[in-house]
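subagent[fold] <- orchestrator: predict structure for attached chain, return tokens only, no commentary.
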Amino acid sequence: MPLTAHQETSLKSFVADHGALGKGPLSVVLVVTRVARQSGLPLEEDSLLTKGGGQVRALGRAAVQTILGEHGIDRVLAQEGGRTSRGSVGLMRAYVQLLNGFHESGGVDLPAVESWWIERVKEFLSAQPFVLRMDPSRAVRSVVRDLIGQAEKRQSEASGAMIVGAVLQHLVGAKLSLVVGGGVEQHGASVADESTGRAADFQLHDTAIHVTVAPTEALLKKCRRNLEHGLQAIIITVGDRTTMAEGLAEQEGIGGRVDVFDAEQFLASNLHEHGKFARAGSSTSARRLVETYNDIVGQCETDPSLRIVIA
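subagent[fold] -> orchestrator:
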């Protein structure tokens, strides 16, 4: 059965009163909810403590990730699974009292409670910025691939969200801005070209640049119109979609007239070039790219979770 309006309101109040939307608190409530599902209500607070009484029993990364995995989430919520978080024991006691209160008031659907918390986990994970890991032992293209992979993973966990396309467009926009020294017109990823009168996502001089994660016949027809108006046409896409775009270009009768680039290579080559092919230079270039990207996201998007931090 679904949660009652009173139960959902009580859970929201619990979040507000205990600040329970951090990775540690979310780990605690997920594990305690799972214990309640397995053991039944009411729960005894002290039975959920380790022998020394200083930590919540069964709390740890493995337990938390097992629960998340059952709900299709493979991102790590907390490296220690909340075990080392201050206040975990106090939070556990307060949460047990809440669940026991639901039980005493007529019962509660614990799977529904767990699902409610899973939605809070998804919100928490979606609110975190992407991380560009500049590991000097890794190829620059691999670093870019990891970043795009993070966007793909987040998109798979957020139904209907077009995250990969937004990240890709603004990374390309940042690169173009750095290449030409600014002055590149930037738009939100959801803003259609037609609504702004643009020939493509970006137009520099006589070149129309299209950024996409899924080339379509409609896109190649747009490229053909670009060519008919005397523009060069470039498509930037991901992985094996380059082959798809080239095939569609052949079908549209413009094969060999449209440049198609893999996004990873397009971005990685720029970092090498601007870094003058020195490892330290590539790192500096990556920081400039991320700073410019974050500026664009701040100007064009309302979702701050699209930002990137460098580790």
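orchestrator: received. Logging for downstream: The longest strand covers residues 232-237. Residues 279-300 form the longest helix (22 residues).
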